[in-house]
Design goal:
The protein is of the alpha+beta class and about 130 residues long. The protein is about 35% helix and about 20% strand. It has a four-stranded antiparallel β-sheet with strand order 1-2-3-4.
Length: about 130
């Protein structure tokens, strides 16, 4: 392929990326609206939230997935979100993961890096 062919392919990729970005921009909501809807849906007030990675431990959810870990007034929640199609328009298979742990069932919480977690007994059972 000569220079003109590469330039044409690059131009098409940029055009598709721009059009995809414009399409996505119209479907976004503000952070305040998102948390207002979550508080209404769960009937709890948000205290704290952050990005997290679910590594496993529940027999129904076996895959590692990224999402939000958020502390509400009465529960700790994890929820992942579909990432949508990539730049080539392909959507990867997605399994929705949402779970709640009532605060009264939590006795201790420990923050551990993913690498350190994998070397624990629990991590070894998950990543066999």
């Amino acid at each position: 392929m000569n220079f003109l062919g590469y330039a044409l392919v690059l131009g098409i990729l940029v055009l598709v990326g721009v059009l995809w970005g414009i399409k996505r921009k119209g479907s976004q909501i503000s952070v305040e609206e998102f948390w207002r809807a979550k508080e209404e849906e769960y009937g709890e007030r948000r205290v704290l939230s952050g990005f997290s990675r679910y590594l496993g431990g529940h027999p129904r959810f076996e895959k590692v997935t990224d999402g939000l870990l958020f502390l509400m007034s009465r529960s700790l929640w994890f929820e992942n979100f579909e990432k949508g199609p990539n730049i080539f328009g392909f959507t990867m298979p997605f399994e929705k993961v949402v779970f709640r742990v009532p605060l009264q069932r939590i006795s201790t919480i420990e923050s551990t890096s993913e690498r350190d977690f994998e070397s624990t007994d629990f991590g070894n059972r998950l990543f066999r």
